[in-house]
Specification:
The complex is a heterodimer of chains A (241) and B (244). Chain A has 241 residues and is of the alpha/beta class. Helix content of chain A is 39%, strand content 25%. Chain A has a six-stranded mixed beta sheet with strand order 6-7-8-3-9-10, sandwiched between helices. By secondary structure, chain B is an all-alpha fold. The chains are: A alpha/beta (241), B mainly alpha (244). Chains A and B meet through helix 2 and helix 3 of A and helix 1 and helix 6 of B.
């Protein structure tokens, strides 16, 4: 379970995240929506322990991220914004490195590496330097790293960005298949994705939660029945106020 | 401890996965050889020692070590990898030490590859190999000092060129603080203990005494403290700057 209480993050005078509270339970896929700069990535960076909150608490599977950060980090698989990885390494070397840091050993290590390689269809590029790969492959290498240790919690910042429609479909299926017993938080700009994979959608604007309900409920708010219109209505109003 | 080893291994392999390692090693060997024979008058001196070789090390390191250290953290920050690295279940200090040790061992490898000079001097004469060994240790310690400064500066910026230039300037200051011209400047008005403090901060003072074959505990403590302080500063800087 992820429990977030009164989370605030300030960068100087700017309040990037302004008093956000929510919980995510196993089996849920939470979609973070919001305009650029709304605070989605900042919130994810705090959940994963990269940034320290200005105030508020975050608990991941019972571990507070600030006090017990190593144990919290062990539970989490994280795809940071832009899917960074070490360009001079091959996907195989990169996954081996992550497996070592994650403490995977022996047959389990080899088995997990094989599994994620086939889950994300990396076989043909496994021995090529990551910097020479296409954007879609780089994103999938980033995803494979995040799910390698079969974590209880997955935090994915724009997991399908840069993928072609077929790859997007596959990644969404992968997320749906993992969703049954895991806690997944994804951020996205693609509203149709929310409807496709998320069990709950949270719209963030100006660092605040402005909507937190199921995609269906969100859609039913609009007379046109389109998520885009709901999104625009909510975030515009917030932007003007 | 185990995590330091994992970070160390990945980092060291990355030097050799790119041309960085080979370019650095070749340039280091060529320059150290050229300086020893041409400017150091290795043959003309007619003495069986490696002083002309080791005397140039501070100046070689001044430019070459920041070239190694500049990428340590600046590249992690620029590529966004720092976010991946610091959300793995490792501590900041493990990451800092692992990366530093990899860079240090790498300069150690380059230093070790100068062994033909040692063979040469043993072939030509009968040098005091104890002094040579001490000088190698001193040189390695000094390289570690330069590297720790460079690693910390590298964490302050995403730009490797800026990291390089600022590291050179700070390393230069640490070298120069032992020079008579600098000390004379202070001697005119500052109390003696300040002059001594400045002189004792110099790489050159400590390196020179070790390279003469005197391994004094104080010199070792100096380099160890210097490395420790700069690495601690390195961790603090990363913590402060990682959001930007």
């Amino acid at each position: 379970m992820i429990e977030i209480e009164n989370l605030v993050k300030k960068f100087g005078a700017l309040t990037a995240v302004n008093d956000i509270s929510f919980t995510v339970e196993p089996g849920q896929v939470l979609g973070f929506l919001g305009p650029n700069g709304a605070g989605k990535s900042t919130t994810m960076k705090m959940i994963t322990g990269f940034l320290a909150p200005t105030s508020g608490t975050i608990r991941v599977c019972g571990h507070t991220v600030e006090g017990d950060s190593l144990n919290a980090k062990r539970e989490i698989g994280y795809l940071p914004e832009g899917a960074p990885s070490y360009g001079e390494m091959t996907p195989l070397q990169f996954l081996q490195f992550i497996a070592d840091v994650r403490g995977l050993k022996g047959a389990k290590r080899a088995g997990r590496i094989d599994t994620v390689i086939s889950q994300l269809h990396l076989q043909q590029v496994i021995n090529r330097p990551i910097e020479t790969l296409s954007k879609g492959f780089k994103r999938r290498v980033g995803l494979s790293q995040a799910i390698l240790h079969d974590p209880q919690v997955l935090i994915l910042d724009e997991p399908t960005d840069g993928l072609d429609p077929n790859q997007k479909y596959e990644v969404r299926e992968l997320i749906k298949n993992m969703a049954q017993d895991k806690i997944i938080v994804i951020s996205t700009h693609i509203l149709s994705e929310v409807d496709a994979v998320c069990s709950r959608a949270m719209i963030i604007a100006n660092g605040k939660v402005v909507a937190n309900e199921t995609p269906k409920e969100l859609i039913s708010r609009s007379p046109t029945g389109r998520l885009d219109d709901v999104f625009r209505e909510i975030t515009y109003a917030e932007g003007l106020s | 401890m185990k995590n330091i080893g994992i970070i160390f291994k990945r980092e060291l392999e990355s030097y050799f996965a790119t041309p960085v390692a080979y370019v650095f090693i070749v340039i280091f060997l060529v320059l150290s050889g050229a300086l020893t024979f041409h400017m150091g008058n290795f043959y003309e001196r007619g003495q069986a020692d490696l002083a002309p070789f080791f005397n140039f090390h501070p100046w070689l390191y001044l430019f070459l070590v920041p070239a190694i250290s500049m990428r340590l953290w600046a590249e992690e920050r620029k590529s966004g990898n720092i976010e991946l690295l610091l959300t793995l279940p490792i501590t900041m200090i493990e990451a800092v030490i692992g990366k530093f040790l990899a860079a240090w061992l790498f300069t150690g490898i380059a230093l070790l590859l100068t062994f033909p000079l040692w063979i040469t001097v043993n072939y030509l004469g009968d040098p005091d190999n104890g002094i040579i060994l001490a000088a190698y240790i001193g040189s390695l310690l000094m390289a570690g000092g330069f590297l720790a400064i460079g690693a910390c500066i590298s964490a302050t910026t995403k730009n490797q060129v800026i990291a390089f230039i600022i590291s050179v300037v700070i390393c230069f200051a640490f070298l120069l603080s032992g020079f008579p011209i600098v000390l004379e400047f202070f001697r005119g008005w500052a109390p003696q203990y300040i002059v001594d403090a400045i002189a004792s901060l110099s790489f050159l003072t400590h390196y020179t005494s070790i390279s003469k074959g005197v391994i004094d505990l104080r010199d070792i403590i100096y380099f160890a403290t210097l490395i420790g302080c700069w690495l601690y500063a390195n961790a603090v800087v990363i913590e402060m700057k990682k959001a930007s």
